[in-house]
Design a protein that fits this description.
single chain, 90 residues, mainly alpha, 2 domains, 40% helix
Amino acid sequence: MILFFFGLSAGVVAKIKGSSFFVWFLVGFSLPVAGTLAAVLYRFERNEVMRNCSNCGRVVPLHVQVCMSCGEDLDPPEEFMAAPARSERA
């Protein structure tokens, strides 16, 4: 029962940060305290800097080196797009 709640907490934290709930649930379930702590310290996926693929135009994160859509090898960009701003709830 305790392992389930550690997995749930890691999954919820990761989902808030934009990562996969199921993957982080398994990490939190397998490594109870360390998994939840890792989910808290993991980067925010939604705040990633984005860029366009030069071949197909798909928007991909800056750290991606090969486009998942067309397989184009992406060079380091000269300019990049900022991540879309999320509207703040009042």
